[in-house]
Specification:
Low-confidence stretches: 1-14
Order of helices and strands: EEEHEHHEHEHEEH
Number of strands: 8
Strand content: 15-25%
Helix content: 25-40%
Radius of gyration: 16 Å
Strand order of the largest sheet: 1-2-4-3-5-6-7-8
Largest sheet: 8 strands, mixed
Length: about 240
């Protein structure tokens, strides 16, 4: 796991604002965490999972950390969630919502990285090629339903990998697929002891803060390697 990366000392957190975007699946909401205009290098769009929203700890941690590295973060609330519904729709409807809001992301004029956690990661993987995403970030990718390894979704990772650079970040104890279960071509960065929501047990030899710092560090290092984030450790 790469070294943890935090915002530089003295850097203020990004100011968040939310806009509504109409899509074929209904109205979606995008909460923007802006990088300073003079340093903005890329835009990372992150979708939520089927069982939660943009308040998920991994999404929130990236939204706080990445703007200081020149990456604007757009936390995307799918139409079903924005409308207050409790059950996610079919994958094709999720893909339609994501595709419909993509122009609002691309309008910023920055390279757009498609990303998300769990079901949101699957959407990003399936649509990256047609939408022309600069790269894909898959957090807690549900490789298979719990206890059903034969129901693999690895073909969605193949789609993302064919579209461009792909980073998967996976909890070491994720019941939807541990790091060792992934195909060799798509080995994830591991957050040790973490579950599907990147929570770590109290008895684990790492704290929750350290686990999230490892996650944000892995993502920042990957983006820096792509030339899409500033390396604040250089020199």
């Amino acid at each position: 796991m790469p070294r943890p990366t935090r915002p530089p000392a003295g850097t203020a957190r990004a100011t968040a604002c939310t806009e509504t975007v109409d899509t074929p699946a209904g109205a979606a909401a995008i909460t923007w965490h802006e990088a300073p205009a003079e340093s903005a290098r890329a835009l990372l769009a992150l979708g939520h999972g089927a069982g939660g929203g943009i308040e998920a700890r991994d999404l929130a941690a990236l939204a706080v950390t990445l703007p200081a590295h020149g990456v604007t973060v757009a936390l995307v609330e799918q139409p079903w969630r924005a409308a207050g519904k409790k059950l996610a729709p079919a994958p094709k409807t999720l893909d339609a919502g994501w595709t419909g809001l993509w122009p609002a992301l691309a309008a910023r004029g920055l390279p757009v990285i498609a990303g998300g956690r769990s079901a949101g990661a699957r959407v990003a993987c399936r649509t990256a090629g047609p939408l022309g995403a600069a790269a894909v970030l898959a957090l807690a990718f549900p490789l298979h339903p719990p206890g059903r390894p034969e129901k693999s979704r690895a073909e969605e990772l193949d789609l993302a990998g064919a579209a461009g650079p792909l980073l998967i970040v996976q909890g070491g104890n994720d019941p939807f697929g541990g790091p060792a279960e992934f195909p060799a071509a798509h080995r994830p960065a591991e957050v040790p002891y973490a579950d599907h929501g990147f929570a770590v047990p109290k008895r684990a030899p790492v704290t929750q803060e350290a686990a999230l710092a490892g996650l944000t560090g892995a993502v920042t290092e990957w983006l820096t390697g792509l030339g899409l984030a500033a390396d604040t450790h250089a020199g």
